[in-house]
Design brief:
The protein contains 14 helices and 14 strands. It is of the alpha/beta class. The protein has two domains: 131 residues, Aspartate Aminotransferase, domain 1; 234 residues, Type I PLP-dependent aspartate aminotransferase-like (Major domain) (Aspartate Aminotransferase, domain 2). Helix 8 links the parallel strand 8 and strand 9.
């Protein structure tokens, strides 16, 4: 019997097949080789501006050497959960290192960022609790809300009046209320209004959980995160981050008070029933921290590149959502046009990624670009030249609604 799909699933497959037939399908592109800022696809080089490798550390000599040495000492995997046979001394050393770096009392490492949110939020939000979360939060937070025993209520994106209304409506109905938001929103590069969130949390007696997947390693002094960027680290109850971006690996971290982390350590099912981070991944993150703490130029180069591209896109006439982070989204509007422009960029040696609904609102398809400390000005100048050609070729609007 053939497995068949209907409804939304069938529509998605039909759209994918249509794009493949027109040679516009932009996903699952097979990268044959990588040198950090340049990847090879179909035998041709493309400048990578679609990566979350913000600090450019995936090819750093110290980082690669540390990963190799960890494999030589511990092998390629732990073959079990941290609860049982998968707890290495380097896991615990990394957690101590991360807690100090982030500025919280204790930290715990999960095998992926998504598992961090799934496990932590479902563990802390019981049947008598609730979560209030930003309407543009990451998909992992949405899935975590489905696992949590308590209900979830949305507030308008980065709208503090909407958040306060949600607090007023729910603070007396539940034992604990958690405000949950991305620190840096992954599609538009918006930064959460953490100071205002902290003030509201203190006013109404709520707790704050920040998903800082795109913030740690980037925002704040030496990349200590969005909470450090705003000077509110001691006001954030739980802070989550991932290693698949600035830390050149895979995994997730949650930091907070010792009691909160110990509770989650013994309650989060995605932690208890998943194999632990492999030794090479642990060593990679630790080595990235070494580089971040010792190299004062890495963030200078990152923000130089971000400023160069932000100014360049503005001069060409693109709308980039006023992003103040290494994520610079280019507003396109039409879904199909976003695919066509993405192919044009690829054909001209630039790797970028389109974002279409439901990841963004209908009519706001965009091309998500992001920048690394390791990009050269020569590479970025070439990228701007190609985008300038695309602007003329496809009549890309300069504002939403144009």
């Amino acid at each position: 019997m053939t497995l068949e799909f209907s409804g939304a699933g069938s529509k998605i497959l039909d759209t994918a097949n249509m794009l493949k037939e027109k040679d516009l399908y932009p996903f699952f592109r097979a990268i044959e080789d990588s040198e950090g800022t340049v990847v090879k696809i179909g035998g041709k080089d493309q400048i990578m501006i679609g990566s979350n490798n913000y600090l450019g550390l995936t090819h750093h000599p110290h980082v690669k050497e540390a990963a190799i040495k960890a494999i030589e000492k511990f092998g390629t995997g732990c073959t079990g959960s941290r609860f049982l046979n998968g707890n290495l001394n380097i896991h615990e050393e990394l957690e101590e290192k991360l807690a100090k770096y982030l500025g919280h009392e204790k930290a715990i490492c999960f095998s992926t960022g998504m598992q961090t949110n799934l496990g932590a939020l479902s563990a802390v939000c019981g049947p008598k609790d609730c979560m209030l979360f930003d309407s543009e939060n990451h998909a992992s937070i949405i899935d975590a809300s489905r696992l949590a025993l308590g209900p979830t209520f949305k507030y308008k994106h980065n709208d503090m009046e909407s958040l306060e209304e949600a607090l007023i409506s729910n603070i007396n109905r539940f034992k604990k209320v958690f405000i949950v938001a991305d620190g840096v929103f992954s599609m538009t590069g918006d930064i959460a209004k953490l100071p205002e969130m902290v003030a509201l949390a203190e006013k109404y007696g709520a707790y704050i959980y920040v998903d800082d997947a795109h913030g740690i390693g980037v925002m704040g002094e030496k990349g200590r995160g969005t909470m450090h960027h705003f000077g509110v680290t001691d006001k954030v109850d739980l802070n989550m981050g991932t290693f698949s971006k600035s830390f050149a690996s895979i995994g997730g971290v949650l930091s907070g008070s010792a009691e909160a982390i110990d509770y989650i350590k013994h309650m989060a099912r995605s932690f208890m029933f998943s194999a632990s981070m492999p030794p090479s991944a642990v060593a990679t993150v630790s080595a990235c921290l070494d580089v971040i703490n010792s190299d004062d130029t890495i963030h200078q180069r990152l923000w130089r590149n971000v400023e160069f591209m932000r100014n360049g896109f503005k001069e060409i006439g693109f709308y980039t959502y006023n992003s103040q982070t290494p994520i610079l989204p280019i507003f396109i509007g039409d879904d199909v046009k976003a695919m066509i422009v993405t192919k044009f960029l690829a054909d001209n040696g630039v790797f970028a990624t389109p974002v279409i609904p439901p990841a963004v609102p209908k009519g706001e398809a965009l091309i998500r670009t992001s920048y690394m400390a390791s990009h050269s000005i020569e590479e970025l100048t070439k990228v701007l030249d190609i985008f300038a050609l695309a602007k003329k070729e496809f009549d890309i609007p300069s504002h939403i609604g144009e």
